[in-house]
Amino acid sequence: MTMKKALLLGGTGAMGVNLSKLLIMDGWEVAVTSRSRTGIDHYGIEYVRGNAHNVTFLEGVLSRGWDAVVDFMIWPTAGFAEVRDKILAACKQYIYLSSYRVFADSPEITEKSPKLLDVSCDAEYLATDEYALAKARQEKLLRDAERSNWTIVRPAITYDRSGRFQLCTLESEAWLRLALAGHSVPLAAEMLDKQTTMSWGGDVALMISRLVGNPKAIGEDFNVCTSKHQNWGRIVEIYGSVINMRLKKINLSKYERAAGGIYQCKYDRMFNRVMDNSKVLGATGLSESDLIDVEEGLTRELRIFLEHPAFRSPSAMQIGRLDRVGGNIFSPSEMSQLCRNGSAREIVKYYLSWLFV
């Protein structure tokens, strides 16, 4: 019997790694595009070196023919329009990773809930190709395609021992580095009461794996996440049960200036994000009890990460702004270590941002 073949575009992140292993266990032959890795690992996963944003490289790897293509890439909308038909023609099923952020504010979000792209009256925002809008536009491009062999999946916020631990709009290389250094972590007081949905990346990968090769998934969209939710204040408490963390509440406008990502604040984190996952559970045969509780999952994954922490380099400018409003400051030597022995330029950026936030 011929093995089914799956290609994961840009699938080297935590979710892609989990999905690759699950597909291998289910009897799939799996290849993953990577900017750096090549060869076959001990799980039997093949790594194809190249940049999937490069159309020539993409056409080459697609020419091998695939039963499923799972797309973890972040495309500009114009770039996605160029490759859409090429990908759809090269596989039996194209799984496109969108985001729950495409949705407007709703009491409970189902697959039929209104999208920001369709209901927003913010002309300045709509003129951008910000992440949530780009994903929504690319969903429309898929629906408008001649071929309908696509599946749209929308994760909510995911966390994983690889270091993905979000807090409001802050990534772990910002807030967790501050907390571990004994600095205050400034957060918007108004945001702490907002509901959020956070799923372990392994659970999201499990849901996607049950959609790959699933006839019920063709031409359909799914919210791939837990239905459990809690406010950001509770997330602070969960993180605080693992590490010593000093929270400093500030107002929203000050937080936006310090953290950046104003559209993410305004059109996501300041909404109550309560997700309905009944459609994906019905299509996959999973139940909510198969998914890990956020308190157990966050605690476990953060503790594992902290055994051998490997942070991405932070934005020196963002750290400077956060430290200023948090009432702390790093020494030059500490900042050098924080930026992996960063250049003098990065250290200067930190102090300038601290001074002029």
Describe the structure.
By secondary structure, this protein is an alpha/beta fold. It folds into 2 domains: 5-162 and 196-228 and 273-307, Rossmann fold (3-Layer(aba) Sandwich), CATH 3.40.50.720; 316-355, no CATH class. The chain has helices spanning 14-25, 55-62, 77-89, 116-119, 123-126, 131-143, 172-180, 201-211, 232-240, 252-259, 262-269, 278-284, 294-307, 316-326, 332-338, 344-355; strands at residues 5-9, 29-34, 39-40, 46-49, 66-71, 91-97, 150-155, 157-159, 184-188, 195-196, 198-200, 220-224, 230-231, 246-250. It is globular and about 60 Å long. The mean pLDDT is 96.
Secondary structure layout plus pairing:
Blueprint: E1 5-9, H1 14-25, E2 29-34, E3 39-40, E4 46-49, H2 55-62, E5 66-71, H3 77-89, E6 91-97, H4 116-119, H5 123-126, H6 131-143, E7 150-155, E8 157-159, H7 172-180, E9 184-188, E10 195-196, E11 198-200, H8 201-211, E12 220-224, E13 230-231, H9 232-240, E14 246-250, H10 252-259, H11 262-269, H12 278-284, H13 294-307, H14 316-326, H15 332-338, H16 344-355
Helix pairs in contact: 1-8, 3-6, 10-14, 14-16
